[in-house]
Amino acid sequence: MTASKTWVKVARVDDIDPSVPYLVELNNRAVALYHTHGIVYATDDTCSHAEASLCEGEYRGYIVTCPRHGGQFDIRNGQAVKMPAIAPIDVFAVRVEDGDVFLSPEDM
Ligand code: FES
User: Fold this and answer.
1) Residue 39 located in a structural domain
2) Ligand 1 mean position to 47 CA, how many Å?
């Protein structure tokens, strides 16, 4: 049996803009939240290409665009889908309860 995770409330679903990632921090790690197609996703805020904040960019559907050089990532799996981004970013499990968004510090 798997030990259950600890979850920490980091935001409300309503806090998350439908086109601009919402920045939260947990365990000193900057995390970008997205709300698309009725589901909340979480990824690293920092672009894997050159240290830009993805929360200063925009997302449409499942694709977030880095504000610095235009690299893009799929927020469902962190895969880079447009150059110059090549390396993936981390994605994190999200739990939503009664409009509250939770992340697990154990994932950070
Ligand atoms: S810093 Fe994000 S694509 Fe270059």
Assistant:
1) yes
2) 6
